[in-house]
Amino acid sequence: LVGSDIMNRELIVEEIRKKILCYTTLIEDEYPVSKSRIEEIRTDLNSKIHFEHGTITFFVRDGELYLPEDAFTVIDELKGLKEYGTTSNTGVDVEHYLDTKTTYMDYIKHVICDGLDVLSFYEESLLHEVMHMCGGSGGSLLDEGFNELKTRELAQKYGIKIAAVGYQKEVEIAKKFEQILGTDVCDKLTFLPLEERNDYLYSVGGSELVGFYNQVRNTMDKEGAEYRKNLDTVRNPFVKAKLYDKVNYKNSWD
Q1: pLDDT tens figures, 105-135
Q2: What is the DSSP string of the chain?
């Protein structure tokens, strides 16, 4: 990064830090998260925010947030398009977070036409990642669906601006689980460590529910394997959108 970008990065980190502190409070009030985990985030936050080169994908590893550094370059490239900054507020409306059919390609158009800068781009995905930092699981595609579903529910409740396009197909399956099991059970599942889930599901619905949950979870990972394999190395948003378009969960729905 050159001088101006370094300055921007420092300012961005400060704004991200403030939002994380706000979001952890909302998440702690709303969901069954570990109090000690929340406290660890708050007391050691400066060491938990990093930049990752070579991707435009956000991720959390070992409770630490990695922001895609390539966003600086990508946003600069998008600024050269004639459509950049020609509209405003074309993203998903808050009231439609849970029923939107918006695609990732639609989101790219929103980023371009609304003229999002790097901070705005980061902010629209931040709540999802803070959910992961607070214990929202992401080890499988179904886990990501639950994490994004809970993100959208929380964002809708408090009027928080989010992208509301990530893991759209996975959210639909998570919503179906919520219809079957109820909100409280799915809240618990979202933040429950993997090694404790089978026992919890058994207490809710016996061995049939345990088998059903794991069958769907494993089938989704098989059907979405090609997308997940390439996700961490993609830096072109249009390529990412095309990869996701190919994901088909027919067997999982069956």
Answers
A1: 999 999 999 999 999 999 999 999 999 999 9
A2: --HHHHHHHHHHHHHHHHHHHHHHHHHHHHS---HHHHHHHHHTGGGGEEEESS-S--EEETTEEEEETTHHHHHHHHTTSTTTTS-S--S--GGGTTT----HHHHHHHHHHTT--HHHHHHHHHHHHHHHHTT---SSHHHHHHHHHHHHHHHHHHT------TTHHHHHHHHHHHHHH-HHHHHHHHHS-HHHHHHHHHHHHHHHHHHHHHHHHHHHHHHTHHHHHHHTT---HHHHHHHHHT---HHHH-
